[in-house]
Amino acid sequence: MKRTQLFIKTRKDAPADEVAKNAQLLIRAGFVYKVMAGVYAYTPLGIRVIEKIKQIVREEMDAIGGAELIMTALQRPDTWQTTKRWDDDVVDVWFKTQLKDGQEVGLAWSHEEAIIEMMKQHISSYKDLPQYVYQHQTKFRNELRSKSGIMRGREFVMKDMYSVCLDEKQHETFYSACTNAYMRVFERLGIGEDTFVTFASGGAFTKFSHEFQTICDAGEDTVYMNSDRSVVLNEEVLNEDTLKELGVSRDDLTPVTTAEVGNIFNFGTQKSEEMDFSYTDKEGKKQFVYLGSYGIGITRVMGVIAEKMSDDKGLVWHANVAPYKVYLASIGDVSADAENLYKSLKSSNIEVLYDDRDARPGDKFADADLMGIPIRVVISSRTLEEQSVEVKLRSSEDTRLVSLGDISNYIASIEQ
Ligand code: ATP
Ligand code: MG
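Above: the input entities. Below: the structure tokens describing the complete assembly.
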């Protein structure tokens, strides 16, 4: 992509009404556009980060047997009435609207009931199970608070997966496979070391659900960790009962501020009984399916990464989620050589953002830093005298000259 084809202008200052660092940086760097509090659009730069995150999630969900689908944003009330969750006193984040004929519809805040209702139409025998489906979908939640930038949206992207199993054993096997898959996702996103499987409040069926909590100053949660970090629990379940069950003592726990990046639930047969989702077993007997639900906040993760990986110059993307690997800046009248280099990098499958604007070097460098692109390549008449370009990593101050003939291989060899 060429900068002249990208409508985005970076800004020196963040909007005055934006208090969260993630939104300030992402707006300044041109990844995100704020429509209103808690409602953000993603620019051509922003969507590349979202898509990278989604692709990592997709690969790991496919690896454990997931099948991707897409549900709808508009939902019928009766789907949720069977579990009493249409009621605003039970679910306080609904956005609801009406069709022309007065019929009410809801904007999806979750897809649990909606997916179950659809799967029910297809599954009737033990031979049909197990099944695992997932989607990347926009959720609408009328959140009270919206001070955390894209980490808490009123409209946001979630990956949600649902498991339909024969029995508890089959469910448990998948639940633990999914826990491991989630940790692989967070490792690949560069936040694995700071992300912990956390005991949190469960539903009607189980005592605990499991959250994936990432250490982050801008997070809205507090979790308690023991000294070797082997037991982490959300403050909402911190009581004598839990301490006894998990075998930890209160004195060994330290509070840490975190952001919830994922949450997985075991519904058991509670929801399938409510929604009459059953199958016929080998003996011809009716059994209720075991259900599980598994979420990752895709846009919240992007916000958490922005919070954690930045410096005074701007964003510092991890290579696995960076919108481009290389920021190519041309200085002076070298457009023919720069164009050739741009084409040759692209033909080597290197993702390049080429700053072909007629702009001052300082402005180009500042944008490369603010946008957080991992590798900066500068081409100028001075570097061309040596048939070279200057290479600098976003994470370091060192620069080095690399010959034009070697540059593609050199970049491909850089891990980060
Ligand atoms: P929170 O406690 O932060 O309100 P939640 O427990 O209500 O979140 P879940 O229903 O468990 O959220 O949703 C699954 C995941 O979706 C969460 O773990 C989180 O990463 C993400 N998520 C939830 N609400 C939001 C939001 N308003 N904006 C962005 N991401 C969100
Ligand atoms: Mg949750």
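Note for the figure: The chain has two domains: 8-311, 324-413.
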